[in-house]
Amino acid sequence: MKISCYVITYNRPSLLEEAIESFHRQDYQGEKELIILNDHPEQYFVYDHPEVKVINCPVRFDSIGAKRNAAVSLCSGDVIFIWDDDDISLPWRISLSLKYKGEGKYFKNKRAWIWSNGLIKPEPKHNVYHAMGCWDKSYFLEVEGYPLIQSGQDIEIEKKFMKTKFRNVKLLPDNEVYYIYRFGGTGHIHLSSCGYGKGYVEIGKEKVEQKGLIKLNPKWTEEYDEKIKEIIVTKDKGSTIS
C-alpha cells in the first residue's frame, strides 16, 4: 500500500527541514511520499528527492482548512498521514500506525511526548493530537474533509470521525509512542494558542524567516529518538529501584 504524508507550511523553513528529516528516518519499507504545500508568497522552497514533492503556491489560502483539503487532494497514496511542520514524528510512526490500523479506516495513539523550550517532559500526555492520526483517503472523502476555518479545523474533523464506527484510538505504551508535540520555544506562533477559529492574521504578522528561493536541507537539530530512549531507560531504572 502507498503511504502519503502531507505537510502544510508557512514561513517555517527551519522547522520544515526537521519534519522532512522525520519522514526520511521512517523505518517503513513500502512506497511512500511526502507532499509539502507552501503558500507563503515570499518563499519558494526547493528540494530534490524522489519521495518528496514540493508545491509552492504564490497566493495564500483563505483558511487552514482549505489548505489542508488542498494538500490531501495532492496525495496519491491509499493512507494519509498528517505531518505537521512544527512536530517530530519518530522513526517507527508509519510502520507502527499501519500495524495497529490493520484493515480499519483510521488509527491514532492517545498520547504524545511533549517538547517545550528544548526539553522533553518525562511522561507522554493525553490530548486530541489530530496530527498523530492516519486514515484511508476514501474515509477522508466520506466525512467531506476539513471545515474551511482557521484554528479548530483539526478538532472539527475529529468530531466527524468520531461519529462513525471506523475510528480506532489506542493507548500505546511509552516505548511505542511515536510523536513529539512541540509547544513553546520553536520561535514561531502555535496556531492553537491563538484561539478557536483564529490565528491566520497573527501568523501572517511574523517576521519572514528567509525570503526568495530556499534550498531545503533536511536535518534534526537533536537526536530525538535517542532522547526518548534515554527517558524510557531512566524511568525503567527508577521503577526497578522503587
- Number of helical segments with 4 or more residues: 7
Shape, principal axes of CA atoms: globular
Oligomer: single chain
The tally of domains stands at 1
The fold-level CATH name is Spore Coat Polysaccharide Biosynthesis Protein SpsA, Chain A
* Total DSSP E strands: 14
Helical percentage: 25-40%
CATH architecture: Alpha-Beta Complex
Query: What does the radius of gyration come to?
Result: 17 Å
* CATH fourth-tier homologous superfamily: Spore Coat Polysaccharide Biosynthesis Protein SpsA, Chain A
**Could you name the CATH class?**
Alpha Beta
Widest sheet: strand ordering? 4-2-1-5-11-7-12
Residue-averaged pLDDT: 93
The H/E string reads: EHEEEHEEHEEEEEHHEEHEH
Category from helices, strands and their pairing: alpha/beta
Describe the 3D structure:
29% of the residues lie in helices and 24% in strands. The chain contains 7 helices and 14 strands. Strand 1, helix 1 and strand 2 form a beta-alpha-beta unit. The chain is globular, with a radius of gyration of 17 Å.
Present the secondary structure layout:
Elements: E1 3-9, H1 13-24, E2 32-38, E3 43-46, E4 52-56, H2 64-73, E5 79-82, E6 88-89, H3 93-101, E7 106-109, E8 111-116, E9 119-120, E10 125-126, E11 134-136, H4 137-142, H5 153-162, E12 167-170, E13 179-182, H6 200-204, E14 212-215, H7 224-241
Parallel strand pairs: 1-2, 1-5, 2-4, 3-14, 7-12, 8-13
Antiparallel strand pairs: 5-11, 6-13, 7-11, 8-9, 8-10
